[in-house]
Amino acid sequence: MITVHHLNNSRSQRVLWLLEELEVPYQIKRYQREESMLAPEALKKVHPLGKSPVITDENRVIAESGAIIEYLAGKYDKEYRLKLSDVDEELQSRYWLHYAEGSLMPLLVMKLIFSRMGKPPVPWLLRPVGAAFGKGVQKGYLDKQIATHQQFIEQHLATHPWFAGQHFSIADIQMSFPVQALATRGATELQPHTRGWLEKIQARAAWHRAIAQGGELTLS
After folding, report:
1. pLDDT (0 to 100) of residue 52
2. pLDDT tens column, 169-192
3. Which domain of life is it from (predicted)?
4. Under 8 Å CB-to-CB from 200, ≥6 apart: which residues?
5. Bond before 40 cis per omega within 30 degrees
6. Which of 29, 51, 75, 79 is most buried, with most CB under 10 Å away?
7. C-alpha dihedral (116, 122, 125, 129), degrees to nearest 10
8. What is the distance between the alpha carbons of residues 7 and 38, in angstroms, rounded to a whole number?
């Protein structure tokens, strides 16, 4: 059976959602973030990097969100629930699958890091300097870059109901985490079509089942 090594408030929530969409049996091994917000050392017993998400399946250890999602969809989507028959939609799906972690998430992670430079574990004497520096980097660079990405996503969803095009796909599952992060860490509020897409995925029955299994995501 598939085991999802699930870290709270992490990208592994997407893996649970995919498995619920496919209605594939799985079990969860739960891990809690430490006070530093890092994953616990116990995850290194599963994968050397000690990161989440990671799954085990038939003696295979598979890490990285995109790789996990492609593996699970390729192996377990027996009823073709998420497979795309249109070549252009397949290309769009693949693009957004890799864009999520390759282009968008690095900016959002940097924004999170720089927003915390005035807080522990930064030594208290350095926090005023850290806070000022962090705000400067966000205002001078990160917020502008993130706003560009927000507009890019909004323009795409203005003419496509789903990220691949006319059909729900693994691209929507992969993009769920960065769009949720955008809602809390973005340079501006989510624009209408992006917000509408987020509301649409959050209304899916499989989404609610995944939340019931893995817990609510709290991104800040």
Report:
1. 86
2. 999 999 999 999 998 877 778 999
3. Bacteria
4. none
5. no
6. 51
7. -40
8. 10
Six token digits for residue 99: 């864009």
DSSP-derived pairing of the beta strands 2-7 and 26-31? parallel
**Whether 119 contacts 189, CB under 8 Å:** no
Q: For the segment 126-153, what is each residue's pLDDT rounded down to a tens digit?
A: 677 767 777 878 788 899 999 999 999 9
d(CA 179, CA 156): 13
Tokens (6 digits) for 118: 């005035």
What pTM was estimated for this model as a whole? 0.92
String of DSSP letters for 59-77 = TEEEESHHHHHHHHHHHH-
First to last CA, the chain: 33
CB 52 within 8 A of CB 10: yes
pLDDT confidence of residue 166: 97
Structure confidence by residue, pLDDT tens digits, 92-103: 999 999 999 999
DSSP code string of 150-209: HHHHHHHHHH-SSSSSSS--HHHHHHHHHHHHHHHHSSSPPPHHHHHHHHHHHTSHHHHH
